[in-house]
Amino acid sequence: MIEWKRERVRVEQSYFDKTVHQTLEDLDSRPGGLSDAQAAQRLERYGKNALADGKKKTGVQVFFEQFKDLLVVILMVAALVSLVSGEGESTVVIFAVLLLNAVLGTVQHFKAEKSLESLKAMSAPSAKVLRDGVRRVIPSAQVVPGDIVELEAGDMVVADGRILENFSLKVNESSLTGESEGVEKTADVIEAVQVALGDQKNMVFSGSLVTYGRATVAVTGTGMHTELGKVAALMNQTQQRKTPLQESLDQFSKKLAAVILCVCAVVFALSLWRAMPVLDALMFAVALAVAAIPEALSSIVTIVLALGTQKMAKQNAIIKDLKAVESLGAVSVICSDKTGTLTQNKMTPQKIYADGALLAEPELNLANDVQRLLLKAALLASDATTDEERGTSIGDPTEVALVMMGDRIGVDEGAYRSQHPRLRELAFDSDRKLMSTLHVIEGVPTLYTKGAIDVLLDRSTHVLTGAGAVPLTPEWKERISRTNMELSLEGLRVLAFAYKELPEVRDLTLDDERDFTFIGLVSMIDPPRPEAVQAVADAKRGGVRTIMITGDHKVTASAIARQIGIFREGDEAVSGVELDGMSDHDLDERLEHISVYARVSPEHKIRIVKAWQRKGKIVSMTGDGVNDAPALKAADIGVAMGITGTEVSKDAASMILADDNFATIVKAVVNGRGVYTNIKNAINFLLSGNMAGILCVFLASVLGLPMPFAPVHLLFINLLTDSLPAIAVGVEPARKGLLDQKPRNPKEPILNKSLMLRILAFGAVIAAATMTAFFVGLNAGGAALASTMAFATLTLARLFHGFNCRGRESVFRLGLTTNRASLAAFGAGVLLLAAVLFLPGLSGLFQVSHMTAGQYGLIVLLAFLPTAAIQIYKVLCDRRK
Questions:
Q1: pLDDT per residue over 174-200, tens digit each?
Q2: DSSP 8-state symbol, 748
């Protein structure tokens, strides 16, 4: 074990600050690669180059865990007592409900986690390595530290490695860094102590894709010791938090179970004290337990959440985890990725510098000679193309932005390039930071070059002006450099352009890239989505803070955040390296002031999320890359991008944005608040109805009266007639002004004092009507008639009560027809009750007695009275508002 730890530390040290020789020496390797014996020994030592599985529960374990809830145990005991007492119908119904809930819970568990499988799918199946100086293709699982791997365009990087030889290598690391633009690699040493992952340009990382060039790489880490492996480890270690509703319902269940046990014990003791037979006393206790436990609550909550997901799906928010719907309503912090979520994920030209003037891109004028030549150089010294009919672009994002300049003023790059064909070229090289193409312009061989401004300025001798080419004096250089600095501080990416006339068409050499005439600058940026600005403002109005977390540079990220409204006066922007230098205490103190995090790693993202959670906030995290997955899982609501997102991020998230649009998150938050309100109203309906049943059973027990309901009566009410109005309450249209409210306190229990008082008051009114019917029946025909009248009155009263629970206002203010589902639920419930009362087969099963027309009329009147009283009270409250 000690040996393994020593080797693990050696493999996971940094290599970006080591020379090629030091890297090979440290890895005990050589340019010709390892020998077969060395490779076999290291494979035994380090294991296969594959991601490890976390511990998984079996289906049987998950299934039996569904029965751990105390309320479930109480129901199981009640079912067994019913069986002993000869109430077989109650036993069958109770066990059927419990079995169904357990199956649903098990299925939901195994649908929840597939992230690691998606990570494994990113591994390349094979690798090209040097073994004893011979090039071989081996399964990627057999790659070991010290192996020399050859990479070329189209290859998936099989392991982390230090570049030994670089030939214009360009790698797409978006899955790890979140930034879609390819990274130009180098073999040079990076002399720094700490370097962000996206800036380690002499390293390659497992799971990334080679898009251009080739390289030879020494493998420094495999399997779980790669950056991709760290993400997998974080995924295995990260626990998904329970939603506020789950926490609240769990607390409610524990308290309710304790109360039920105490009250059942009191009722049982009272019954025995009155010399009631033991089985009859037990049946009283069972009836009380069945009346108290809201058997349909979990199912109703699930159905309401599911209906909420359908509504959100129509607004491009696809909910994977039903529980996430409710959590959205409590979100107070949104940690958002920049690229593609807040921005358009499309480089767009912004400002142009030519002839000593800075102008906006739409002001580009072909009548100006310098501006015309700048556009010509931009179109000819690039390879990107656009398809206007399909609205698609092909090529490097920066070159696509250059082509867009021509498109906007009617210049077709294809036609223009065919008029001035490319005769020779010097391809872009990350060391030179230049690209040059040779064309014949009006009979003169002309070399057009684009690249980094510092390189081109050093190689230029003249600058083009409206009066022609003039010497590039120090004053001109300082003026151009100052303009570049201004553009860079705005977060703009800047490209410089120059030209040079040659005496003849000939093969080009690197020596030709000097003595240029400087033309000008083109700046570009991935602009904010127009709707993102309004969405961030809407979120702020609703008490939701937006934080930008991105792999981009701090200056660029801050500029975009300022445009969108995320970064305001007094706010801070922090890089990943700076974040590493902060303790948790320091971060907690500065957290409220930091609006932008740049160049961050997966560990940083989790740390930021957890810091906000420590402050008691419900956090939503958005992202699209593999690097985002652990934070998506750690956040209360993980939001993945549906268009640009990786499968790993989608699997880890609770919600997927079909349109990759930040504004959709804000809409989902509003819907989440509406769903939570509806769930709370549905719980009010269910528990106030159950409270009426509890009070009736308890009162009958205290007064020594016959049992007012058979357990099967209460199960019929709780599982059938109550379910329909509860679902109808759950689809009540959202009220206006939800976004003007602050996020609710996630620590506040769903059963707060106000709701509990309403449940008790509503339950007492309904119980009074029910017991009135019970006494009438008891005096008119005995226990059987009394039980039937009490059952019918309670059922119908609870159906009427569904209208009371649609909202805090009266049905007149809410609108009688704004929720037609409530009318349909009432009608269906009445039909079910009628079937039980009038159909011979069902009336026998549910132990109901024959009643007179007058008794039916009395039941309807008594059942309606509680709702009439409640609505009169609400009308009076409406008038006070």
A1: 667 766 567 888 888 888 877 877 788
A2: S
- Report the alpha-carbon distance of residue 749 to residue 402 in Å, rounded: 56
For residue 141, the SS3 value is helix
Backbone torsions φ then ψ of 625, nearest 5 degrees: -105, 170
Q: Report the pLDDT value the prediction gives residue 98, as an integer from 0 to 100.
A: 67
Tell me if 74 sits within 8 A of 257, measured CB to CB.
yes
φ/ψ of 527, rounded to 5, equals -75, 155
Mapping DSSP to helix (H, G, I), strand (E, B) and coil, where does residue 189 land?
Answer: coil
Is the distance from CB of 588 to CB of 612 less than 8 angstroms?
no
Burial call 847-873: b when 16+ CB within 10 Å, e when fewer: bbbebeeebeebbeebbebbbeebbee
How far apart, in whole angstroms, are the C-alpha atoms of residue 410 and residue 662?
A: 32
736 phi/psi in degrees, rounded to 5: -70, 150
Distance of CA 198 to the CA centre of its chain: 23
- 158 vs 178: CA distance, rounded Å: 19
Of 155, 160, 337, 660, which is the active-site residue? 337
Q: What is the DSSP string of 336-380?
A: E-STTTTB-SS-EEEEEEETTEEEEGGG--TTSHHHHHHHHHHHH
How far is it, in rounded angstroms, from Cα 177 to Cα 173? 6
Residue with tokens 């007695």: 849
pLDDT digits (tens, 9 = 90+) for 572-588: 999 988 999 999 999 99
Structure tokens belonging to residue 305: 């959440």
* pLDDT at position 550: 86
Neighbours of 25 (CB within 10 A): 12
Q: In what order do the strands lie in the sheet with 333-336?
A: 317-319, 655-657, 637-641, 619-623, 333-336, 545-549, 594-598, 572-575
Closest among 267, 260, 200, 255 to 227, alpha carbons compared: 200
Separation CA 816–CA 826 (nearest Å): 13
Residue 223: Cβ within 10 Å count: 23
Q: Catalytic annotation on 337? A: yes
DSSP states of 407-468: HHTT--HHHHHHHS---EEEEEETTTTEEEEEEEETTEEEEEEEE-HHHHHHTEEEEEETTE
Query: Both ends of the chain: CA-CA distance in Å?
Result: 71
Nearest to 226 by CA among 4, 11, 2, 10: 11
Over residues 727-739, the pLDDT tens digits come to 889 888 877 777 7
